Amino acid sequence: MKKIVVLTGAGISAESGIATFRDANGLWEGHDVMEVATPEGWQANPALVLEFYNQRRKNGLEAQPNAGHLALVELEKHFEVEIITQNVDNLHEKAGSSNIIHLHGEIFKSRSTIDSGLIYDIEGWELNMEDTCEKGSQLRPHIVWFGEDVPMIEVAVEKIADADAVLIIGTSLAVYPAAGLVGYAPSDCPVYLIDPNANDLTVIRDNVHKIAEKGSVGVPKVVEELISNKN
Ligand code: NAD
Question: Which residues contact 84 (CB under 8 A, 6 or more apart)?
Answer without folding.
Answer: 5, 6, 7, 8, 101, 103, 156, 159, 160, 178, 181
